[in-house]
Amino acid sequence: MENMAESPQVSAHPVVKLIPNGPEIPPLGVGTWSWGDSLFWQYGKDYGASDVQRAFQVSLAAGITFFDTAEVYGLGKSEELLGQFIQATETPVMVATKYFPLPWRFKPQAVADALTASLKRLQLPTVALYQVHWPFDFLMGQKALMNALADEVKQGRIQSIGVSNYSASQMHQAHGYLAERGIPLVVNQVQYSLLHRKIESNGVLSTARDLGMTILAYSPLAQGLVTGKYRVETYQTPAGARRLDPRFSKDGLRKIEPLINVLREIGKGHDKTPAQVALNWLIGQGNVVPIPGAKNAQQAEQNAGALGWSLTSDERQQISEVSAAWR
User: Fold this and answer.
1) Per-residue pLDDT band at 39 (split at 50, 70, 90)
2) Which residues pair with 71 in a beta bridge?
3) What pLDDT is attached to residue 232?
4) Mind telling me the catalytic residues?
5) Measuring CA to CA, which residue among 163, 259, 159, 277 is closest to residue 220?
6) Of 301, 289, 302, 327, nearest to 131 (Cα)?
7) Which pairing describes strands 16-17 and 24-25: parallel, antiparallel, or unpaired?
8) What's the pLDDT at 264?
9) Residue 30 pairs with which residues in a beta bridge?
């Protein structure tokens, strides 16, 4: 940790342009759901503000300057922490946050009000990317929602528009509404990992490519399952919400053993961990930017190790084949 000069640099991978002449992000970001969240994650118990601030600093030192948050993460605490950390650094940081379409938000003004609150917590005048967290619209409707977002682009408070958890058809619809305003839809943030490859078969990934969009891959390490940390031979019931997830049971871990073994074996040839191999595989998909979480410096440094090198085509194929059951 002390020798940060040896940290991987994102220059080994091309930057990702969200829009022409607009925000550019590195090929790997940081998801901040766990920052300030004590409901799903154990914030305040197993780790705290100093831990996530160190994760922030280590990420910046490795050239990872893109952070994804949301108004609902920690009920605003994630945005507050990120804002504080940004104020304490001179390194330019790219921020993405999200609007949650709650049922009682039925007028376009709700978008403006939610964004105002997010910007205040982040202590920023504008964000690189503003996303709709889920494809709900209730009484507002998608067209009114997209027009409200387009208005904020025109006002300069957001630089680009994205969605999250949208299906292929929902992406097309949102893209069409924004196109009427001359504004592109640039991102769909969805779950994507070697243990959750459904976007490859349900049209989301191909639609993103057709529309020139980037996929932000959340849970790219399947909440730690592909790191090799959870093993049958050393099994312990996991803490928190993981104990309710059957994938973390003994039977669940047995099912993924072949994949973990391949990641471990390929990683040896590159002096990389299974997690770094899994993230590198996602980056190699082309229009995919993984945003793994990082609760501490060690996790941030591990994530950064996914950059600066590439899997061979044979290795990529081997990983694809052993994880094909999760497509």
Assistant:
1) confident
2) none
3) 64
4) 73
5) 277
6) 289
7) antiparallel
8) 97
9) 67
